[in-house]
Recover the amino acids of this structure.
């Protein structure tokens, strides 16, 4: 039975699991994307996204609270270079994103043991996916229909009918 099993233990002891996730999170922050198994990628996503949120909210706080956030993140990451990169470059880039900082892309099976492989990456650092999409509009749309599109389409239809009748 799985009573109280909130996360994947990945077949490791608690200390081994924490060390592995800290190392993987440091590598993800440093290299912006890493290849791993799907199970580890999902566990890493749950581990690293709260840390990125702490780094993001640090920029809006006073000095005392930012020091606290850095220390909390350092306790999880155990790598001062990764913490510096996270609170600097990564927090700057994800400042306006309301969550969902990582993306998992499945890659197929590994040749040696047929394990499901995946690439986990920081979303804002992938220029290929972000290049094709224009900036989102910040206006709200109503569900009633009509609006600017219907008004713009109506005169176009009338001009076409008048052009056909003149010929």
């Amino acid at each position: 039975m799985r009573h109280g099993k909130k996360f994947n233990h990945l077949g490791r002891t608690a200390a081994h699991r924490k060390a592995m996730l800290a190392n993987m999170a440091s590598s993800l922050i440093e290299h912006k994307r890493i290849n791993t198994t799907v199970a580890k990628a999902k566990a890493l996503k749950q581990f690293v996204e709260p840390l990125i949120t702490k780094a993001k909210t640090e920029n809006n706080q006073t000095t005392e609270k930012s020091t606290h956030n850095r220390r909390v993140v350092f306790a999880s990451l155990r790598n001062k270079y990764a913490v510096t990169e996270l609170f600097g470059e990564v927090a700057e880039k994800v400042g306006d994103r309301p969550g969902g900082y990582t993306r998992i892309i499945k890659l197929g099976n590994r040749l040696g043991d047929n394990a499901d492989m995946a690439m986990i990456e920081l979303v804002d650092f992938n220029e290929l996916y972000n290049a094709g999409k224009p900036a989102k509009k910040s206006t709200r749309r109503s569900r009633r229909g009509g609006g600017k599109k219907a008004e713009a389409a109506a005169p176009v239809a009338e001009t076409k009918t008048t052009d056909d009748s003149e010929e």
